[in-house]
Every structure is written in structure tokens, then in C-alpha cells.
Design goal:
Elements lengths: L1 H20 L4 H18 L2 E6 L7 E4 L4 H10 L3 E5 L8 H7 L3 E3 L6 H14 L4 E3 L17 H8 L4 E10 L9 H5 L8 H9 L4 E7 L13 H16 L4 H4 L1
């Protein structure tokens, strides 16, 4: 309970800080998010470990198991995230993600791809890596879902390198019977709602997140314009980095 109160107060303070400072450049917004995320995970009692080296520009594609992925990656480095437009409407968090420089995309809306590409190019010009989760959904971490190709295609057409990343979790302390990574740490499934899940996590101990970055960008062999093949290669690179088997192929 005490941790929940402290975290709520911290988010309110963060929002006020953003309202006052209003960082004007992508570099300043990414730096604010980096500092805020690093402090937030500490307040949550989450330990973040980092393996590899963040690229100085281009895109990072990663597996996705929940909102902690975002906080862990941002805590490790200055980055800009790509998110669906629906995030803008989330009370307080939507405004904070907008102010921290998030690039929004909107499926099925004319001009969305062009706007997303412009945002990606602006981030690249500022020397800030762009992070997105091509699965489009969160999972329990057992495998990696099919990658959507839209944003990836925009990055490749812009000539930017794409680097694979993998996020993994473990519990280093006993939290009692029935507590698992899949059902209590990962945020996935239609039954999950955001704020109750956050308060549940705040009651757990020993949450450890490892963010692993590949040593080099993905060497795509897909022909220019072959979005499907490129998405398959990016997914394979993320799974190889994380040592995850393809559940579809294995079945």
C-alpha cells in the first residue's frame, strides 16, 4: 500500500514536471523519459539489467509482454517509442507519452504511414533510437507472435538500421503459491486491466527485467518492398536473441 501511494505521488510529480519544463526537442524529451523511467522502476522495486549496446540511431524491435517492457527499456537508455494512437486517450499516461516524444500510428487511416515515417526520420536525425513492438499485442512470453510489417517497412524505406532486442523477466524472491511470471508480471489477455495490474505488481518482490540488445543490426535478405519477408526475418532475429523456439514451427 505504501509503495502504491508513493508511486502515485511520483507520477503526479512527473506530470507536473513535464507541464513546467515542456521539453521542446526530441533529445530533451527522450532524456526526461529516461530519467523518469529509471526512477519509476526503482520506486516499483524492479531491478533492470542491461546487456549489449544501444545503437546511436535507427530502430530497435523487441518482443512485448507488457508495460514494464517500456519502462525497462526507457530506464536503460534515451529512446523514442512508437505506439498506437489509442494510447493518447488514456488519462494522464496519454498526455505524458505524447510529451515524452512518442510517435503515434493509426491503422487504416490515410496518411498515417507518412506521418509515422516523418516521426521516425525526425528521431533518427536527433540521434535517438526508436523502439517499437511489431507483435502489436502483448503475450505471456512463451513465444513471439507474428510481426506486423507496417512500421518496419517505413524504417527500412527510410534506410535506417534495425536492431533486435529481447526483454525477459524473472522473480528472484518467493512471492507465495500461485504467483507466476506469466500471470502476474506479464500484462496480457483480455481479462487484464491496467491499474489493478499495476497495483498487483507493486505488491510483489524480486522482479528482475533484463533488456538484451543484439551486437549488430539485422542483416535483411528480403527484397526491397517485400514487407512480409522482412517482418519474418526481424521476428526470427528477436527469437534467436532470446533463445525462444517458434511455437508454430515446433507444433
Amino acid at each position: 500500500m505504501i509503495r502504491s501511494v508513493k508511486l502515485t505521488a511520483f507520477f503526479i510529480f512527473g506530470a507536473l514536471e513535464l507541464a513546467i519544463k515542456r521539453p521542446a526537442t526530441r533529445e530533451l524529451r527522450a532524456e526526461w523519459l529516461h530519467q523518469f523511467a529509471a526512477k519509476t522502476v526503482r520506486k516499483m522495486g524492479v531491478e533492470v539489467r542491461f546487456e549489449g549496446h544501444f545503437p546511436t540511431h535507427g530502430a530497435i524491435v523487441a518482443n512485448h509482454m507488457g508495460y514494464l517492457d517500456i519502462m525497462a527499456i526507457a530506464a536503460a537508455h534515451r529512446v523514442v517509442f512508437v505506439s498506437m494512437i489509442e494510447m493518447q486517450s488514456v488519462p494522464l499516461l496519454g498526455w505524458m507519452t505524447t510529451m515524452s516524444g512518442t510517435v503515434y500510428v493509426e491503422r487504416g487511416r490515410g496518411g498515417s504511414a507518412a506521418r509515422a515515417r516523418a516521426g521516425l526520420q525526425a528521431a533518427a536525425a536527433a540521434g535517438v533510437p526508436v523502439v517499437f513492438f511489431p507483435e502489436g499485442v502483448t503475450s505471456n512470453g512463451a513465444s513471439v507472435a507474428k510481426f506486423h510489417s507496417g512500421i518496419l517497412a517505413q524504417v527500412l524505406e527510410a534506410g535506417e538500421p534495425v536492431t533486435a532486442a529481447f526483454v525477459r523477466y524473472r522473480l528472484t524472491e518467493d512471492n507465495g503459491p500461485g504467483v507466476t511470471l506469466e500471470n502476474d508480471i506479464c500484462y496480457w489477455g483480455d481479462h487484464m486491466t491496467l491499474f489493478p495490474h499495476i497495483f498487483k505488481i507493486l505488491g510483489l518482490r524480486g522482479i528482475e527485467v533484463t533488456v538484451q540488445i543484439a551486437n549488430a543490426p539485422i542483416a535483411f535478405t528480403a527484397a526491397p518492398g517485400d514487407r512480409k519477408h522482412a517482418a519474418e526475418e526481424a521476428r526470427a532475429a528477436v527469437m534467436e536473441l532470446g533463445g525462444v523456439r517458434d511455437a508454430v514451427a515446433a507444433g
